[in-house]
Write a structure and sequence with these properties.
This protein has 204 residues and is of the alpha+beta class. Helix content is 34%, strand content 31%. The protein has one domain: Gcn5-related N-acetyltransferase (GNAT) (Aminopeptidase), CATH 3.40.630.
């Protein structure tokens, strides 16, 4: 079971349920980052679908989380809202899989917030919840997001043609995945080792 609500954290990165009182900060971030996020945001192939308010979105995410279908996290950095990370498409049975999507405030991109959050979420899903596989689907043009999965060592499993409706059309995505067998020590341990190796290389 998903065990919602849940709070996950490592260092100055904290993942927690999105709250109604996040409305002002969330709307400000989305407005400031609108142009940067637009090429990567899911859109509806049906143009007449009405937009939901922040309160409607938050309540819907909470209902789905309590039903065990997703884990919708706000991502805080140094105590301030910095983005979102959502575990969706949770399937049990013989598959035990889910997929992760995320966005971060452009002014805080490159600080290791999303790699840290993804490592924490992956470890939680695989080792606490009991899922077997986590995947991330990314547009081939999204170089910033591709760097995240490359840093964490996600396996590139190829291209899914016209996979998701993004920015007004059906777009190709590359699929990256990890299973429990790939992570004997956990993904956070791998991420920390990678950072230490980079620091050592940079100091020589």
């Amino acid at each position: 079971m998903t065990g919602w609500p849940v709070v996950l954290e490592h260092g100055d990165v904290r993942l927690r349920p999105l709250r109604l009182r996040d409305s002002r900060a969330w709307r400000r971030l989305r407005s400031e980052n609108a142009d940067w996020l637009k090429p990567w945001e899911a859109t509806s192939p049906t143009p007449d679908v009405p937009l939901r308010s922040f309160a409607q979105m938050t309540r819907s995410l909470s209902r789905q989380a309590r039903a065990g279908r997703m884990l919708p996290f706000a991502v805080d950095h140094d105590g301030r809202l910095a983005g979102q990370m959502t575990v969706s498409g949770i399937i049990w049975g013989s598959l035990r899989s889910a997929q992760v999507g995320y966005w971060v405030d452009r002014s805080r991109a490159g600080l290791g917030i999303i790699p840290t959050a993804l490592a924490v979420v992956t470890d939680h899903c695989l080792f606490q919840m009991g899922l077997h596989r986590i995947e991330v689907n990314i547009r081939p043009e999204n170089t910033a997001s591709l760097r995240v999965v490359e840093k964490l060592g996600f396996r590139d499993e190829g291209v899914r043609r016209r996979y998701l409706h993004i920015d007004g059309d059906w777009r190709d995505h590359r699929t990256f995945a990890l299973t429990v067998e790939d992570l004997p020590g956990g993904l956070m341990a791998r991420w920390l080792e990678s950072q230490q190796a980079q620091q050592a290389t940079g100091s020589t």
